Amino acid sequence: MTTELVLRAFGQTDVGRIRKNNEDAILVSSELLLYVVADGAGGHASGEVASRLAVRSMENFFGATVRATHDRPEIDRFGIASGARRLSQAVLKANQDVIEIARTSTPHRGMGTTVVAACFSPRSGLMHVAHVGDSRCYRLRSGHLELMTQDHSLVTDILEQRPDVPDEVLARLPKNVVTRALGMDPRLRVSIRSHAVVAADKYLLCSDGLSSFVSTEELAETLGSDEAPEIVVERLIAIANAAGGVDNIAALVVDCWGGYDHARPAESVSPLGSDEQSDAGRASEPELLILGIEELDSAGVDRTEGLMRELNELFGRTR
Known about the structure:
Layout: E1 2-14, E2 24-29, E3 34-41, H1 46-64, H2 66-70, H3 82-104, E4 112-121, E5 126-132, E6 136-141, E7 144-147, H4 154-161, H5 167-172, E8 191-196, E9 202-206, H6 208-211, H7 216-223, H8 229-242, E10 249-260, H9 279-283, H10 298-318
Antiparallel strand pairs: 1-10, 2-3, 3-4, 4-5, 5-8, 6-7, 6-9, 9-10
Helix pairs in contact: 1-3, 7-8
């Protein structure tokens, strides 16, 4: 059973109790079904410029691409949600804008911002979440709080490569170092996921000024109340300030009303598409090709080398 998906959302930032500038920015757009939190960094108030620029850039991109989305299928022939690709494009456009301002304006050199963004596709019943850095997205479903993003941080990167690193080494690492952010690299990698929306889901987008100082138990308890998003956000910010308020705080809550009564996975198709290649052609190729591994089946070598040349040329043109 399903009913029309209705979203109720509210977001707010707070300077906290220590900082002089508020470098967090948010976007709540019920018209575009787009919700964004950005946490800026950089001297001379440049972090504030970066976060607000990123939010405005993403809003402008979504506004300019509304009409184009009507002609696209929700799930393309590669099994990828069109909404997810659109959200990733918006983040990459924001990255270009931040880099351009930082390059051309001396006072803004070195500025950057993290971002976490969610958009919703009522036709498919999917929400898409994109993030860069350590701003986070949580989901509360049936009383269970889940972290929907993974921080792009120094600690996370080290653990991915060296899970055996001693605890005493981890303890000495700075906790506030991110390894991805808008403004760092024109070849930014954006983490993007799509999830089925279930009626009564609640989503929280936040900066680390909230997630680092409010426990998951407090997050779950506060989100689980029946209060409106405005009240929930105010309480979350109050809890972070009560914990010291040592950083800027951003919290954005989205309540989902209606929609599906249980999770429905997105429809998927063959990555190649039924009209791309015959079964006989596919059977003659290696089952799996791993980029960077030279010992390939001879039947696939020429084709793979040609593909890699094309990819290198493409990436070279877009830099």
